[in-house]
Specification:
This protein is an alpha+beta fold and 1270 residues long. It is 41% helix and 12% strand. It contains 40 helices and 30 strands. The strands form 8 sheets. Strands 18-24-25-26-27-28-29 form a 7-stranded mixed beta sheet. It has a 6-stranded mixed beta sheet with strand order 23-22-21-20-19-30, with helices on one face. Strand 22 and strand 23 form a beta hairpin. Helix 7 packs across helix 10 and helix 23 crosses helix 25. The longest helix has 26 residues. It is globular. About 1% of the residues have low confidence.
Length: 1270
C-alpha cells in the first residue's frame, strides 16, 4: 500500500480498527454516498452538517462509542407503500365540507365523481422503513468494512461463469459488495465510496442461471422426467431476522474473539429501539397480523443487505450442498440460487408429481432450515412452472433493449426503441391482469403466456428510465421553431413528451408505490395541468382520517414530488421541457402547497422536511412567520439578505447555513450582506453571552472554515466588508493570507522577470501557469529536493538533505528562472526559496506517519503547483454561479480520502501532463483503503526522498529527450493497456468521412455553429453516422462464423470540426459499444483560461479499470491557421500528445504510439520531423478543399516519417486516405475515398509491427520500403 502504515492493509474487527478515526471517516464516506443516492427520506441537512464538521464529529462519535452507556439513536419509522392496485370508485355521498385538506386548501369546483383508493377492501400494510442517524450508519459500516473480505470470499465471485458455479459453490447474487477477487479471495476497496456492486449485472446473472441449468437439465433428463422452475420468496425477510442469532453469526466470523467494541456494537444492535411515536404508527399502517413493530434488520440501514447475507450464510451452504441431490424419491434438485429474499430452484420431477407435492417437499427439505432461523416462505408468491427450452423471458427483451439504447442511435432508431418501450408498459399491464388468472392451466389460455421472469413494477421502472433518456436524445435532434415574439412553438416532440408524461402518471395512479413513474412524468412535462390533479388527489387522500394507510401513501408521494422537483426538475435547462409547458406555473403551484404544509402544525416530520427543502431550493418561505426549524428560518433570512438575524446557533451551524444559503441563493449578494452583518454583530461580542450565541471567537472559526470550503464566498465577504468598513475582517486577515486570497496572479510576459525572484503563488495562479506542465512541475520538485536549484544538465544527485519540518507555504516562496520562455524545454536554470507554515489551514492528515510526512508534503507541494491552488485537495472548480442544491457533499477531510489526480481532474482536458504524474501523486498522497497500482510504470520498492529524487531525474531525462525541439513544445505520452490478447497484431481502424459542417455553414450559422437549428441538424447527423459505424463493423464481421456479433473497433477517426463538444456524449456511447479510441476534430471552442476561440481535436480513450469504466479525454491543439481562420481563430498548441498502446506480449518495450495533428498543422515539416522517431502512426483530421495538395503531403509523410499516415477529410470534399511505406503499390495505398458530398465509412487493419524493431513474428509479411536516410 505504498506509504501507508501496514495496519491498513487488512482491517480486523477489533478495538484498534473500529476506533481508528480514518476507518470511521471512510465508513462515513460510504454511508453518506449511499444514503444520498438511495434513501429518498434522507435528512439532507444532517448529511450536510456531517460533511462540514466531519473531523470534530468523528471525535464525538468515537467518544460516544467508548462511553460505557453507549447505545444507538432511536430509529424513526418511515412508512412506504408496497406494490398495490389502486382504482377509481364511484363516490358515495361525497361531502365537500370534509375537503378542507388539513388546512392546505381545496378547490370545491373540482370535486370528482370518483374516489381514488386501493382496489382491495383491505389495503396492503405499508413497508416499515427506518430513518437511521448518520452516526449509527457510519459505525455499522465500519464494522462491515472489517468483516467484508471474509464474508464475500465465502460467497464467491458472482462473475464466475455458470458452468463453474457449482464447483465453486456460488449461490447468492443479491446485496453483494463491490470486491476484487484473486482466485477465491475477495478484497473490498474500503477506501472508495462504492459499497454494493451494480444491481443490473448481478441481477441479470441471477435471472440467467435458471435458464442455463434448465436447458442443461432438459438435455440430461430421462424419459418420464420433467424440468420445473420454482420461484420462492422469504416472507418479511428483514423484519423477521433474529438480531441475537445474527449477532452470534457475526461473533463466529470474528472467531468468537470477544472484542469490547464489537460486543458494544452488537449489544446496541440487538437492543436497538424505535422512537416513541413509531410503534403507534406501525400499529396503524404497517401491521399485517398480530406482530409487533419489527426488531430485525432496519430497512434503510446501509449495511442491512450485508448483514442479511451473513444471516443466511449457513442456510446458503446447506441449500448449495443439496444441489445434485434428491429432495425426495421423485424430485431432484438441479440448481439453487438466491437474490436477497428471492430464490430460484431448478428441479427434475418424475411424471405424475403435482405442484402441491413439490411445494411440500421443498418446504420440508429447504423451508425447514429457514424455520430454524425464524423465517418462512411466503406461499402467496411461490410459483412452480414447467421449464420451457429456449423460451425467451422478458429479461432477455430488456437486455436487448439495454444493449441497443446504450449505443449511439439515429433519430429513426430512437423512434423505434420508444415504440418497443411503450409496448413494455402495455405488457406490464397485461402481466398484472394475468396475475388474477394464475390457476388457469388450459393450454389455449396460456399459449401466449410470456416467461414472466421480471416483475411488472421492475418492467415499468425500466421502461420509464429508458423512455426518459430517449426523449432527451430525440429532443436534441430537432430544434424548436420560434413564433413572432421569439418564443418556442410546440411541435411533434413536445406533444410526444406530454403524452408520455401523462402515460407515466396514469400508470402511477394504478399503483402509487411506483413513484419513479410519477417523478419522471412530472419531469417530462412540468405543468400545472398535470400537477394540479395529482396534488388534488394526494391532498384529498391525506384528509381521510379513517384511512391512515392511505394518508401515509399520499404523504410519501408528496415528499417524493418535493424532493424530485428540488433536486432535478429545478436544475434542468429550459430547452429540455416542452414548449407549451408552463414551468413557472408548475413551480409556483407546488410552492404554494409547500408553504401551506410548512405552516400546518400537524404535518408529519418526513413530509415537513421535504417541503422545507423544496422551499429553500426555490428561495421561498412563509414570510410572515418563523417555522419550528431554526436552520430553515436562518437560511431563508440569509437568502433574503436580512441585516439582523437573531438566532442561537453554534459556529458549525453558522458555517453550514451560510454555505447552503450561498449555494442556493439566486442573489448571492444578499447572502453576503446578511452573513457579513451577522459576523459584525458577533465581532462586537467579546464573550459568549447570552449562552449559545455567536461571539468574536466564532468569527475566526467561521472564516477559517469558509476559507477551506468556499474561498470564493470568503473573498466576496471580504470585498463587502472592506467596502462597508466592517470591523470583523480584522480577525480574518491571517486566514485569508494563508488561503492565498490576497496574492493576485502575475500578469503579462514572464520573460520580463528572467533572472529576478518573483512570487511562486503569483506564477501558479496565472491562467497559463507554467507549472501546470509536467516538465516544469517536475523540475520545480527536483529543485526543491536538490537544495533549491534546478540544473538543466540533470547529471548527478546532490548530497543535500531536504528537511521539511512543516508544510511549504506557497505564498511565501520565491522563484527565479533564467528563461521563462524556455522552461518546458528543461534547458534552463532556476532556483526556489521556500517558506514554511507551522499552522496551515490545509494541514496533513492524521494518518500520515512521521517518516512519511516529508514525502506527503512534497506531494502536497507538487499538486498545489500543478493546480495553482493553495488548497492541495481541491479539484477543477465547477460553475457555482447557478442557484441550485448539490449539497455540502465535500469537505477538506473528505477530499483527502478520495482525491482524483488524473490530468482532467487537475486541470481539465487541456492539462499539459501525462498519467505518469497522476500515478506519482497517487503514490505520494495515497489514503488508507486503497492499493497502489503500478499500471504501466515501475515505481520504487521503498519510498524515501532519495528514491523520489532519482525517480524524478529519470523522468525529466525522458521528458527532455521527448521534447519537440523543432516546434519548441513538450510532448506528453499517455501510456495505456487495453486487455488485448497476446497474439494481437493489428488495430482495427475506421475512418469516418462525415458531411457536416459544410464550408458554407460558417457563413450562415456563425463561426461557433451554435444556432438551435444548426445544433439539432448537426447532432442528428453525428448520431446517424455513429450508428452507421456500428452497422459497418457488424457487416465487416458478418463473414466470420465465430465472431459475427463482434462489434469491437480499436481506433475511429473523424474529420476536423466534425463534432460539437455538446455531442461528445454520442462518441462516448460509440466508444462504450466498440471499445475504440476516438480521435475527432471539435467545432470551434472557447477553452477555459485560453484566448479563443480555438480549433482542437479530442482524444477519447475508454479504459476498463477494476473500479469500472472511465474515459481519458484529452485535447490536441492547432497552431497554424488556414486562411479562413486567420484573425478569427486563435492558435493553441502548448504540447503534443502521444498515445502509447502497451502490448501484453512486449510489456517492457515501447508500445505502438499514435499521434495526431489538425489539418494545416500537418503541412509544417517541423512537426513531422519532431514526431518521426516518436510516433508509429500519424493521424490528420482535416476540413480541406485542396484535396490534391493534401494527397501529395500524405505521399511525402508516410515515407519520410516511415509509418502509417491516415488523413480523414470531410465528406464535402472527400479524399480521405491511409497509406504506409509498403513496397507494393496495392499495399501502400490502404484506403482512399474518392468523390465529394458523400458520407463514407472506411475500415482497414493497421499492423503494429511492420515498421518497428520489435515483434518480428507479428509482422504482416508484406514487403516494406527501405527506410529513409537518417
Amino acid at each position: 500500500m505504498g506509504l501507508l502504515a501496514n495496519k491498513y492493509r487488512a482491517l480486523q474487527p477489533t478495538f484498534e480498527y473500529l476506533t481508528d478515526k480514518v476507518v470511521l471517516a471512510q465508513a462515513w464516506k460510504k454511508a453518506h454516498q449511499y444514503i444520498r443516492s438511495t434513501n429518498w427520506y434522507a435528512d439532507n441537512f444532517e448529511l450536510d452538517r456531517s460533511a462540514i464538521d466531519l473531523d470534530e464529529r468523528l471525535d464525538h462519535w468515537l467518544a460516544d462509542l467508548k462511553s460505557p452507556d453507549f447505545s444507538f439513536d432511536d430509529l424513526r419509522l418511515v412508512p412506504a407503500p408496497k406494490a398495490e392496485r389502486w382504482t377509481f370508485v364511484k363516490a358515495q355521498n361525497l361531502n365537500i365540507l370534509d375537503m378542507d385538506m388539513v388546512g392546505w386548501g381545496f378547490d370545491a369546483s373540482e370535486v370528482s365523481t370518483h374516489k381514488w383508493c386501493p382496489e382491495a377492501k383491505t389495503p396492503k400494510p405499508l413497508r416499515p422503513l427506518a430513518h437511521v442517524s448518520i452516526r449509527d450508519q457510519s459505525l455499522l459500516m465500519a464494522l462491515m468494512m472489517c468483516l467484508v473480505n471474509k464474508v464475500e470470499s465465502s460467497q464467491g465471485n458472482t462473475a464466475t461463469h455458470l458452468n463453474e458455479v457449482h464447483q465453486k459453490r456460488i449461490v447468492n447474487y443479491g446485496n453483494r459488495l463491490y470486491c476484487q477477487f484473486k482466485d477465491s479471495d475477495a478484497t473490498f476497496a474500503w477506501g472508495n465510496s462504492t459499497s454494493y456492486s451494480k444491481y443490473f449485472s448481478d441481477y441479470q446473472k441471477f435471472l440467467a442461471r435458471p435458464l442455463y441449468f434448465g436447458a442443461e437439465a432438459l438435455q440430461q433428463k430421462l424419459k418420464g422426467q420433467h424440468v420445473f422452475e420454482v420461484h420462492l420468496d422469504i416472507a418479511k425477510f428483514y423484519d423477521n431476522i433474529d438480531r441475537s442469532k445474527l449477532a452470534s453469526g457475526i461473533r463466529a466470523l470474528c472467531d468468537n474473539n470477544l472484542d469490547p467494541i464489537v460486543e458494544k456494537l452488537l449489544a446496541s444492535f440487538v437492543s436497538w429501539k424505535w422512537d416513541a411515536t413509531s410503534p403507534a404508527i406501525y400499529e396503524a399502517v404497517c401491521k399485517s397480523n398480530q406482530e409487533n413493530i419489527p426488531s430485525g434488520i432496519p430497512q434503510g440501514l446501509v449495511v442491512g443487505g450485508f448483514l442479511a447475507n451473513i444471516y443466511l450464510l449457513k442456510f446458503d451452504e446447506i441449500a448449495q450442498a443439496l444441489i445434485g441431490q434428491d429432495l425426495s424419491e421423485n424430485i431432484h434438485l438441479v440448481d439453487y440460487c438466491r437474490y436477497v429474499d428471492d430464490m430460484r430452484l431448478t428441479i427434475l420431477v418424475d411424471d405424475g408429481i403435482r405442484s402441491e407435492e413439490i411445494r411440500s417437499v421443498i418446504d420440508e427439505k429447504i423451508g425447514g432450515h429457514l424455520l430454524a432461523l425464524g423465517l418462512k416462505f411466503n406461499h402467496d408468491k411461490t410459483k412452480i412452472e414447467k421449464f420451457r427450452y429456449k423460451r425467451a423471458g422478458i429479461s432477455t427483451k430488456l437486455k436487448d433493449i439495454q444493449s441497443k439504447v446504450s449505443g449511439p442511435l439515429s433519430a429513426t432508431e430512437v423512434d423505434e426503441q420508444l415504440g418497443h418501450l411503450e409496448g413494455l408498459i402495455g405488457l406490464a399491464d397485461s402481466l398484472r391482469a394475468s396475475e388474477t388468472d394464475q390457476d388457469n392451466t388450459n393450454p389455449l389460455a396460456i399459449i401466449e403466456a410470456p416467461s414472466n421472469d421480471v416483475r411488472d413494477d421492475t418492467l415499468l421502472r425500466f421502461s420509464a428510465n429508458k423512455i426518459h433518456a430517449l426523449l432527451k436524445q430525440k429532443r436534441s435532434f430537432f430544434s424548436q421553431e420560434l413564433d413572432e415574439n421569439g418564443n418556442p412553438k410546440p411541435g411533434a416532440w413536445d406533444y410526444l413528451q406530454e403524452r408520455m408524461a401523462r402515460k407515466f402518471i396514469s400508470c402511477w395512479s394504478k399503483d402509487p408505490s411506483l413513484t419513479l413513474l410519477l417523478k419522471k412524468g412530472l419531469e417530462l412535462f412540468p405543468d400545472k395541468r398535470i400537477l394540479k390533479p395529482v396534488l388534488g388527489q394526494l391532498t384529498s387522500v391525506t384528509k381521510r382520517e379513517a384511512e391512515l394507510q392511505q394518508q401515509q401513501v399520499a404523504q410519501y408521494c408528496l415528499g417524493e414530488i418535493f424532493r424530485h422537483a428540488a433536486t432535478l426538475i429545478h436544475t434542468k435547462e429550459k430547452w429540455t421541457f416542452p414548449a407549451h409547458a408552463d414551468v413557472s406555473g408548475f413551480f409556483e403551484h407546488l410552492q404554494n402547497l409547500a408553504v401551506k404544509i410548512i405552516s400546518s402544525p400537524s404535518t408529519h416530520k418526513n413530509l415537513l422536511d421535504q417541503a422545507m427543502f423544496y422551499c429553500l431550493v426555490r428561495n421561498d418561505s412563509p414570510l410572515d412567520q418563523d417555522t419550528n426549524s431554526d436552520d430553515f428560518n436562518i437560511i431563508t433570512k440569509m437568502m433574503k439578505g436580512y441585516r439582523n438575524i437573531s438566532a442561537k446557533m453554534s459556529a458549525v451551524d453558522f458555517v453550514a447555513n451560510a454555505l447552503l444559503s450561498y449555494q442556493l441563493s439566486r442573489d448571492k449578494g444578499l447572502v453576503v450582506r446578511a452573513v457579513s452583518c451577522l459576523l459584525e454583530k458577533s465581532f462586537v461580542k467579546v464573550f459568549p453571552l447570552p449562552a449559545g450565541g455567536l461571539y468574536r471567537a466564532d468569527v475566526f472559526r467561521f472564516c477559517k472554515k469558509i476559507a477551506v470550503e468556499s474561498p470564493e464566498f470568503l473573498f466576496a465577504l471580504a470585498d463587502y466588508a472592506k467596502n462597508n468598513d466592517c470591523g470583523w475582517i480584522s480577525e480574518c486577515k491571517g486566514v485569508m493570507e494563508k488561503a492565498g486570497l490576497f496574492q493576485l496572479a502575475i500578469t503579462g510576459d514572464l520573460n520580463r522577470f528572467n533572472g529576478r525572484p518573483i512570487s511562486l503563488l503569483g506564477v501558479v495562479k496565472r491562467p497559463d501557469n507554467p507549472f501546470a506542465h509536467e516538465n516544469a512541475a517536475l523540475a520545480l520538485l527536483l529543485a526543491l529536493m536538490s537544495g533549491g536549484d534546478f540544473d538543466c544538465n540533470l547529471n548527478s544527485l546532490t548530497d543535500n538533505t531536504l528537511d521539511l519540518p512543516a508544510n511549504i507555504d506557497l505564498g511565501n516562496c520565491k522563484i527565479t528562472c533564467s528563461n521563462w520562455g524556455k522552461i518546458q524545454s528543461l534547458d534552463v536554470r532556476f532556483s526556489i526559496v521556500i517558506g514554511f507554515d507551522e499552522d496551515p489551514i490545509f494541514p496533513l492528515p492524521e494518518w500520515i506517519e512521521d517518516n512519511h510526512k516529508p514525502l506527503y508534503r512534497l506531494g502536497i507541494f507538487l499538486r498545489s503547483c500543478l493546480m495553482g491552488n493553495v488548497d492541495w485537495s481541491s479539484m477543477t472548480p465547477a460553475d457555482s454561479s447557478q442557484a441550485r442544491y448539490i449539497g455540502l457533499r465535500s469537505s477538506f477531510m473528505k477530499r483527502q480520502l478520495g482525491m482524483m489526480h488524473s490530468p482532467e481532474a487537475l486541470n481539465g482536458e487541456t492539462a499539459p501532463m501525462s498519467n505518469w504524474v497522476s500515478s506519482l501523486l497517487f503514490a505520494l498522497l495515497q489514503w488508507p483503503g486503497t492499493n497502489l497500482h503500478e499500471g504501466n510504470y515501475e515505481w520504487p520498492k521503498v519510498w524515501d526522498i532519495k528514491a523520489l529524487q532519482k525517480l524524478t531525474i529519470e523522468r525529466l531525462e525522458y521528458q527532455k529527450e521527448l521534447f519537440c525541439k523543432m516546434t519548441g513544445i513538450p510532448a506528453y505520452v499517455e501510456k495505456l493497456s487495453f486487455g488485448w490478447q497476446k497474439d494481437k497484431k493489428s488495430l482495427k481502424v475506421i475512418m469516418v468521412q462525415s458531411l457536416l459542417p459544410l464550408k458554407g455553414d460558417f457563413q450562415e450559422h456563425g463561426l461557433m455553429l451554435d444556432t438551435p437549428k444548426y445544433r439539432s441538424r448537426h447532432r442528428r447527423h453525428i448520431a446517424s453516422v455513429a450508428e452507421l459505424i456500428l452497422h459497418k463493423a457488424h457487416s465487416q464481421r458478418s463473414i466470420d462464423d465465430l465472431n459475427y456479433k463482434d462489434s469491437s473497433i480499436d481506433l475511429i477517426i473523424w474529420p476536423e470540426l466534425s463534432v460539437s463538444e455538446q455531442d461528445v456524449d454520442i462518441l462516448h456511447q460509440l466508444a462504450n459499444k466498440t471499445g475504440a479510441i476516438i480521435f475527432t476534430g471539435l467545432t470551434f471552442i472557447n477553452l477555459p483560461g485560453v484566448e479563443g476561440p480555438n480549433n482542437v481535436a479530442k482524444w477519447l480513450i475508454p479504459q476498463k479499470l477494476s473500479s469500472g469504466k472511465k474515459f481519458i479525454s484529452r485535447l490536441q491543439g492547432k497552431f497554424n491557421m488556414m486562411k479562413d481562420e486567420v484573425g478569427k481563430v486563435k492558435p493553441w498548441r502548448p504540447y503534443q500528445l502521444l498515445i502509447e498502446l502497451v502490448h501484453p506480449a512486449f510489456p517492457k518495450d515501447k508500445g505502438f504510439t499514435l499521434s495526431g495533428s489538425v489539418c494545416y498543422d500537418a503541412t509544417d515539416i517541423k512537426i513531422s520531423a519532431d514526431l518521426k522517431d516518436k510516433s508509429d502512426a500519424y493521424l490528420v483530421v482535416a476540413l480541406n478543399q485542396d484535396v490534391t495538395t493534401f494527397d501529395s503531403m500524405v505521399d511525402a509523410l508516410y515515407y519520410h516519417m516511415y509509418q502509417h499516415v491516415a488523413l480523414v477529410n470531410t465528406g464535402e470534399f472527400g479524399g480521405s486516405v491511409a497509406k504506409a511505406p509498403y513496397k507494393e503499390r496495392h499495399d501502400k495505398l490502404i484506403t482512399h475515398v474518392h468523390g465529394s458530398h458523400q458520407v463514407s465509412i472506411s475500415s482497414f487493419e493497421m499492423n503494429m509491427f511492420d515498421f518497428r524493431n520489435v515483434g518480428a513474428s507479428y509482422k504482416s509479411g508484406k514487403k516494406v520500403k527501405t527506410k529513409p536516410a537518417g
